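Notes taken during the Thursday session

The instructor put the following on the board and asked us to keep it in front of us for the whole hour. The protein is Acyltransferase. We were told not to look anything up and to reason only from what is written here. First, the residues (436 in total):
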Amino acid sequence: MANTEPPSGLGTIAPEGRHLPNLEGVRGLCASAVLFYHVAFAGGLLGMLNEPKDPFWGVVASGLEVFLPPFFVLSGFLLYRSFARATITGTPWPALGNFMWRRVLRIVPGFWVVTIVTLLVMNLHSINGIWYVLRPLLMLHSFKIENFPVGMEPTWTVTTEFAFYLVLPPFAWLIARYARRADDPVRRARRIMLPLAGFVAFGVVWHVYCSLPSLRQSSPFGMSDLTFWPPHYAGTFAIGMALAVLAVRAETAAEPPRLYRLVRQRPNLCWLAALAVFAVNLYKPFGPAAVPDWSGFTQAQIDYVLSLTFAALFVAPLTVPGVRWRFADAVLANAPVRFLGRISYGVYLWHMLVLDVAIGEGSINGRTAPMDPVAYQAAGMDVGMWPLLAITFFGTVAVAAASHYLFERPVARLGHRWPRAPRPVPDPALAPQQTG
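Then, after some discussion, the predicted structure tokens were revealed:
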């Protein structure tokens, strides 16, 4: 049961610099799910070539793919809400220079460290020139599947995240230009939703295009390079941005939208619905279950819509102002999950490297990466699924914690020290218009 409190004006949502325990916990939970998914393939729970291995755990593990989109939804919510507040209420526009500086320090240095270490530990024998090194450092490896260095396969999401950082300010400005034509906060919030709905539709169209058989058959990996390009997840960022708009509107309007009131009053219903979506996602009516193979065209569209729906339902009740939700606090705000959330970026970056080292992949083990997928899984099964999970999880946590406390956090503090953020100046064009 959730205890709710009515909105009490601006500031109900924690400001950008303040930690939100449940949202921090979401990152920890999602990062752990992604880690388990990859270990499940290496350990033999997931089959290959439409041949499932484990009828229960394999099916469960295959469904964990839905825990990736919530990362992007959270980014959309957390980063857009200051822009949404400025657009809806006429408060000062965020300092863009400081915004970008802090975003760069948040992900780039840590990404560079894991890139250099992975190239040396896993791909040393494959380095054939300076471009092989510069391509991942510049985040250009994500645009062609065959350019993914071994151990860095999941880092295409870093490129997607950074692309969102770059496009958010101009998109937010364009949205504000359109929304400010309305003369009250509620109408402005409604206007913002229109382009965001367009972003969701654009992401769906992009996914449909990426799923065309002609594109997949032309790739030796059975999937289009475009699948890993940033536009593929435009819809998830837009969902997070929409949640930010709803949160700001709930702060400023006497009567929030009816659907938003329902989420605020019955947040457990959202999570029950998310659980139902997760269960439906496990059953693949038009594709194989418990295998990591890419689904056929029809099943791919179903998977995409279900992943968007799950992410929205999972994150939405955690963004509602004034909710005291005991169940979510128990699941997400406990010390272990919050700790995982605190180091989640490192968990996400490092887990494939730790997994590959444990299996025996790469130059550190005297091999030229990558191993054949069948041999890769056979090596993982020799270690054993559950021992491999323990080695990967605890090894990753140790490395990620060291990275966070010894490197990432000290570097991130520079964002608060230099360069000094200029004092925000209100944009008169965005100020509420006086009537009467």
